């Protein structure tokens, strides 16, 4: 006889395996796919077929995925960075919580609720879903953007605020409650528990992982990482605190550990699978009978909740310095209700703050608001960005004289600018990525938002008076467009260009640019020099070998320029990248014509990581 539990596990695994790919295929996101799968396999559709009994227990199990998610977030957020975010966490976070709660409470009072009930519901609905929002931000690649970091700050403050809110539930009761109002001893216990977790984690966790890592047993590292999360969650829950908050603290304490990446890699599979269970369980918990019985009330609550939160967050984002589009994304991504609302409303029913029917309606509205988030973001991407693309005005840099213009202020351009600044050589940096400009400006660098391919921007930057023009733009097409503009209108201005590859070099040469460096060529030669020294070759021999290689490669590069536009010649010389590389290798051997030398392991490192006998290695 087939086990019922195995059937249920198979259904969940099938839902998780199918839902995420389908969600991404239809551009809805994995989270919405999980929610839809939860509705399908829930108690109102397929649940009776495989004897689904208790959705609540599945949801509680899936909440461990949220705990693991916050642990991983803590691992990536070093305490020094958390301290640097304090103004956003407590400034933006508290402003959002207060403003949203008061507006929603005012709406509740207008619909006949007393002040205590209205404020309680407003506080509960002001909380957003940490797991949901962070998962969506990660899927969209926006977790490290400025609005993504602000969203995380708000969510972190909400998680911190949820604990005292749950403790204060009896104070909202209209006619009193059988439960004690607030236990001072419980508050003191909570504070000492947090301090104890921080102290123990600071002084014990790294030492524990060091001992386990020394055994070389990978499974032990995985088990210890999971034990850390479970252990901290048990301690925090025993003290009446949030297990998610405890796991975040534990992760943050390990953020500076040398085992951080190993722990994160071990935790990741469990985190992803349990988060899938959590979102599927939320979809299963949607009570379709309420949807059928009171659709208009439910839709009104969802629209009102999302609209109020999104509008307040948009305003706060603009006040915090975000542009229109990032502020809109911030408002949409955390406009939903949160999983803490489930706990808060359940506690409210037990304390007789709100009735069971109202709590069920609010819980369903929170769930549907989660499902609405990916759809709203999709609408934003397909409609608002197409109709109202934000084009901030370019900045007009001050005219310079006898300075250097650096076009493109990424990693390459920043190195050039740092050297110029160290030698007090004036420069003007231009970049067309507004986020890059905002980021670099915070560190005091002189950079202006502008397209170096526009003549008015170049004139404003003083290209007619500049000593040199550094073309450090990463995008090949943009680089060629800027080079053409500079060579056409400022023919006497020396151009020093960065090229991505050999074809890019040839196209720049077509435009009359003569000083060109391939972006990885010199760094690759330097690494090869160190490699050869490590293999035991003498320094003079290494210099001679690399100098010959560099000379022959550059000669071949410029020789190839004569026919790089000849498609037949190109096809004949390199049918595939592998054939071209093979030809280059063969030609290298012929060009260099150096006697073969058997490299020694004197001063080199052996495969076991220890040094062999002999003189110490020199890196030149």
> What summary fits the major beta sheet?
6 strands, parallel
Mass-distribution shape: globular
Strand composition percent: under 5%
Count of DSSP strands: 6
Count of discrete alpha- or pi-helical segments spanning 4 or more residues: 26
Helix/strand class: mainly alpha
Radius of gyration: 31 Å
Physical arrangement of strands within the biggest beta sheet: 3-2-1-4-5-6
Report the span from N to C terminus.
73 Å
Mean pLDDT across residues: 77
Amount of helix: 55-70%
Assembly of the depicted chains: single chain
Contiguous uncertain segments of 5+ residues: 175-182, 573-578, 596-620
Task: Supply database-style keywords.
disordered C terminus, 26 helices, single chain, 67% helix, globular, 620 residues, 6 strands
Could you explain how this protein is built, in words?
The protein has 620 residues and is mainly alpha-helical. The chain has 26 helices and six strands. The protein has a six-stranded parallel β-sheet with strand order 3-2-1-4-5-6, sandwiched between helices. The C terminus is likely disordered.
